[in-house]
Amino acid sequence: MAQPGRDRAILLPYPATTGAAILRRGSQVLVLFDSPEPLDLTALRNDPVFAGLEADGFPDATLLRLPLAPPGILRARREAAGWVVQATRPAELEGPPQLRIGPWRLRRRAALHPA
Question: pLDDT by residue (tens digit) across 47-61?
């Protein structure tokens, strides 16, 4: 996984009409595109995050599989040149846990006594 604060991302040049879905299955993340565009993943072979990315083409779709142990997650966003798939780690898991104590004021409850 990328170091904290340094997410890794790849651009997949799919047409503007292509939709995407991301699912997790155990230690794998699946990304499904509803376009059969072939992808050349050879440039990712030495990438620390995306080296294990595999693509399967289907008549109307492309399925990507990436081994990515939790808590790592993938996010996707549409840009003009295609889909950007970003591997990230939730911010709350980067570094030691922090305890936040808000500004509390103690109030005494007024005791009600019968008259």
Answer: 999 999 999 999 999
